[in-house]
């Protein structure tokens, strides 16, 4: 059960109840405050007896017979001295312009607050209730009821006189009445009745359940939820009644309307008042408890519950115990619950106190969350309802949340929340950074500092960098990498790093960070030197990005030592910035690196480094012999004599053989192959490449006394040299391995040559015959000669204009045409050829046709 403490301006009323209830984590549904100002003054000298509520004002009756009109803040706006004794009830019409008042001495007054009309009557018994027609302002609705021992209806006649009629009597005092539309509900000692004022008939009677309770001590509470739903609370019982229309077939002598009880249930305490709240009920309960010490009953604080009615039971939504003044002496009849339908305001009236309960808004919800230290939920609620909250600011809640997290030692979470809460407010950011500095937690907030919009003062970033520099080099390096260099004074940080390097000069993290700082400061030379010292992978990227080739001319050896592959590629890609000559000179003392560079240069272009080809011979011989022979083959600029000298000195046989053959000394080359390599296959291959008969002769002479060589020659010589030359020279009795197989192979090679020749001959004959037939067919075709053709010699038309004259024309197979007289006379026994085709060496074309006429 949640305890709701009602606060008054300047003071708080404390409970005399010594037992304290455990605080619930469930948020209350209503909030409370005392109606103060004029009400406080009234209740200091008098006691409240009744109250009624209008949307615009309040009307309060007291035990001394006074009626006060109050504004919603409790300020007195008007006062009426009605009676010297207790005011029992006050009634207002819906317009708030007419008021009815009844008192314990039998007085009844109905008057206009803003007009002169008035009804005044004194009865011979106490009048407990009065109710004016809800639309009393209308001339047709000038009606009101009063209740003492009987219920009287007063109506104004057409002559402006008031006449009365008895609606009910004989069941004890009328103690409660509620008028809604054309229905009047009242309660007497026996139960609750409903009367239809338009039909002038009573609809129903709802008997009370617990007849053991005194009706004057535990009065009935009535309220209309709407024009057809009546809620009855009496003792501990609640009934919800619905007025319904009776079907015409069921009328007979019954009223046209009837009442159905749609819900009925019991409560834990005695009911002092009821009010609707949407589809729920607000119940004011009178509570009696038994003291554990004295075992005697005493009056406890009243409760205000919100319940959800069900057909036969109810569900409690919230329950608050109210500390009203003087609750220890109050009885159930001393409490009243009035409500304002328009604003969902509930007034708890007791003799010494008036408490206002209202539905909690979003501000109240945030208040409760903050009170329970649920800051994250409060922040979320404020963000969702930022248009509706009036008393809270999202920023204030966020700052309180950050402070709360810091107090709990959750520094990382607090720092992370700063991003969302502080946003772009640079001043707040700086304030929070100093707070984190005071508690020694600058490292916690560093990852979340803004770096663009907004930008804080450089001092803030420098302060954090110094903090890391003192205790965490890796964290310092990370911040330098992540933060833009314009956030802080670069020279200040550079000097701080230098100071630390004096203590630890070989610290790679600090050196690398210093290089990055130099880079931000555009001091690329110093940065490059550090990167090279550290052999850092970003050195080449730095050179390319900032075009530092002029700075590395004297650092080529360092670059090559670090990564020769990348260094050479970079140098060759930028020959226009660092010349080949400069690189070779810088690497003069490091021939192995010089070779790497020149080798890569030669691979890219055989001619660019031609001036260094002579030097490269020695470099290849020393550091890379496998690539020496390919170099000698591809280079056209290396001096062969120098190369031969180096290769002979180092006894490089293959390279020497190549050089000898290239210099034209093939016989010496062959001799070296045979004597040094003893490789007959290589010797044969070499002889084949040179295609020189003398080489074959030398090879045969050298091999004639070496059976293995003879075998190799027999297997390979057949297609280049006549094998008989070799066979005739073999000494009788010499044992030659695989001689039979070699001879068989010679014969097979010979047969294969014969077959190839015969095959070629057949193909040649067939092709010749085919072409001869084609030429014959072509030459047998006729040739068209007409007026458009001309003599290729005199260029005049080939046919005469006068067809009667005799003419002679010669036409060749090449389609050239001549007048016979334009051709030279051929010699005896020689063929005649086309002059044009013969001159162009296109082959002869003999005359195919001679036309005469």
From TrEMBL:
Keyword line: Autophagy, Cytoplasm, Cytoplasmic vesicle, Endosome, Golgi apparatus, Lysosome, Membrane, Metal-binding, Protein transport, Transport, Zinc, Zinc-finger
Subcellular location, principal: cytoplasm
Superkingdom of origin: Eukaryota
Acidic residues bias (residue ranges): 14-26
Subcellular location: Cytoplasm, Cytosol; Early endosome membrane; Endosome membrane; Late endosome membrane
Membrane topology category: Peripheral membrane protein
Per-repeat ranges for CHCR: 568-712
SMART domains in alphabetical order: CLH
Domain spans labelled RING-type: 791-838
General function of this protein: Plays a role in vesicle-mediated protein trafficking to lysosomal compartments including the endocytic membrane transport pathways.
Protein name: Vacuolar protein sorting-associated protein 41 homolog
Organism listed in the record: Chinchilla lanigera
């Amino acid at each position: 059960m949640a305890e709701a403490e009602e606060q008054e301006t300047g003071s708080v009323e404390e409970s005399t109840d010594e037992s304290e209830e455990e605080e619930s984590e469930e948020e209350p549904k209503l909030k409370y405050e005392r109606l103060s100002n004029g009400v406080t003054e009234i209740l200091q000298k008098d006691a409240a007896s009744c109250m009624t509520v209008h949307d615009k004002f309040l009307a309060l009756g007291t035990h001394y017979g006074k009626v006060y009109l109050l504004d919603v803040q409790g300020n007195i706006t008007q006062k009426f001295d009605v009676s010297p004794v207790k005011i029992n009830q006050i009634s207002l019409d819906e317009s708030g312009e007419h008021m009815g008042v009844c008192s314990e001495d039998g007085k009844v007054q109905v008057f206009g607050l803003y007009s002169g009309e008035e009804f005044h009557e004194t009865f011979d018994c106490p009048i407990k209730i009065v109710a004016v027609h809800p639309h009393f302002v209308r001339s047709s609705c000038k009606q009101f009821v009063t209740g003492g021992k009987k219920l009287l209806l007063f109506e104004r006649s057409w002559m402006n006189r008031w006449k009365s009629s008895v609606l009910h009597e004989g069941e004890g005092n009328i103690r409660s009445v509620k008028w809604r539309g054309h229905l009047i509900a009242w309660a007497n000692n026996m139960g609750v009745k409903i009367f239809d004022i338009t039909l002038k008939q009573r609809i129903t009677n709802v008997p009370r359940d617990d007849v053991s309770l005194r009706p004057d001590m535990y009065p009935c509470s009535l309220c209309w939820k709407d024009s057809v739903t009546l809620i009855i609370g009496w003792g501990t019982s609640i009934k919800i009644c619905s007025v319904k229309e009776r079907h015409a077939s069921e009328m007979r002598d019954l009223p046209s309307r009837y009442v159905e009880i749609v819900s009925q249930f019991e409560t834990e305490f005695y009911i002092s008042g009821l009010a609707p709240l949407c589809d729920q009920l607000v119940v004011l309960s009178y509570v009696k408890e038994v003291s554990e010490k004295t075992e005697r009953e005493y009056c406890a604080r009243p409760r205000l519950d919100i319940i959800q009615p069900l057909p036969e039971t109810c569900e409690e939504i919230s329950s608050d115990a109210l500390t009203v003044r003087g609750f220890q002496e109050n009885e159930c009849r001393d409490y009243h619950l009035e409500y304002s339908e328009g604003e969902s305001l509930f007034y708890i009236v007791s003799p010494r106190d008036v408490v206002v309960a209202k539905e909690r808004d979003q501000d109240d919800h945030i208040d409760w969350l903050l009170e329970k230290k649920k800051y994250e939920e409060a922040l979320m609620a404020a963000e969702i309802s930022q248009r509706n909250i009036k008393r809270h600011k999202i920023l204030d809640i966020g700052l309180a949340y950050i402070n709360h997290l810091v107090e709990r030692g959750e520094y990382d979470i607090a720092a992370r929340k700063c991003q969302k809460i502080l946003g772009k407010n640079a001043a707040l950011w700086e304030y929070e950074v100093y707070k984190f500095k005071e508690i020694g937690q600058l490292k916690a907030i560093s990852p979340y500092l803004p770096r663009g919009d907004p930008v804080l003062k450089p001092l803030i970033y420098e302060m954090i960098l110094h903090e890391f520099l003192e205790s965490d080099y890796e964290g310092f390096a990370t911040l330098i990498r992540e933060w833009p260099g314009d956030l802080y004074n670069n020279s200040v940080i550079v000097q701080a790093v230098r100071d630390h390097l004096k203590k630890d000069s070989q610290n790679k993290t600090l050196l690398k960070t210093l290089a990055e700082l130099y880079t931000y400061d555009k001091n690329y030379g110093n940065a490059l030197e550090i990167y090279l010292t550290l052999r850092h992978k970003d050195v080449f990227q730095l050179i390319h990005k900032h075009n530092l080739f002029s700075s590395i001319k004297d650092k080529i050896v360092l670059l090559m030592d670090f990564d020769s592959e990348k260094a050479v590629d970079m140098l060759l890609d930028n020959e226009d910035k660092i010349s080949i000559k400069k690189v070779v000179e810088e690497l003069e003392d490091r021939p192995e690196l010089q070779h790497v560079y020149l080798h890569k240069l030669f691979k890219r272009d055989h001619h660019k480094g031609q001036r260094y080809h002579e030097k490269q011979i020695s470099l290849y011989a020393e550091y890379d012999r496998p690539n020496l022979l390919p170099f000698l083959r591809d280079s056209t600029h290396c001096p062969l004599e120098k190369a031969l000298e180096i290769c002979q000195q180092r006894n490089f046989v293959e390279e020497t053989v190549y050089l000898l053959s290239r210099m034209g000394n093939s016989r010496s080359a062959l001799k070296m192959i045979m004597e040094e390599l003893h490789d007959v296959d290589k010797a044969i291959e070499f002889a084949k490449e040179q295609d020189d008969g003398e080489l074959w002769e030398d090879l045969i002479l050298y091999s004639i006394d070496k059976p293995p060589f003879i075998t190799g020659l027999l297997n390979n010589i057949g297609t280049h040299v006549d094998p008989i030359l070799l066979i005739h020279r073999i000494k009788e009795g010499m044992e030659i391995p695989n001689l039979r197989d070699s001879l068989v192979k010679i014969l097979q090679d010979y047969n294969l040559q014969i077959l190839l020749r015969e095959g070629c001959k057949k193909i040649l004959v067939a092709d010749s015959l085919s072409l001869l037939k084609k030429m014959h067919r072509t030459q047998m075709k006729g040739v068209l000669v007409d007026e458009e053709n001309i003599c290729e010699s005199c260029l005049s038309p080939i046919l005469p204009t006068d067809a009667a004259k005799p003419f002679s024309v010669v036409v060749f197979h090449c389609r050239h045409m001549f007048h016979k007289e334009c051709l030279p006379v051929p010699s005896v026994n020689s063929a005649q050829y086309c002059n044009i085709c013969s001159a162009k060496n296109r082959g002869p074309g003999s005359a195919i046709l001679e036309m005469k006429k």
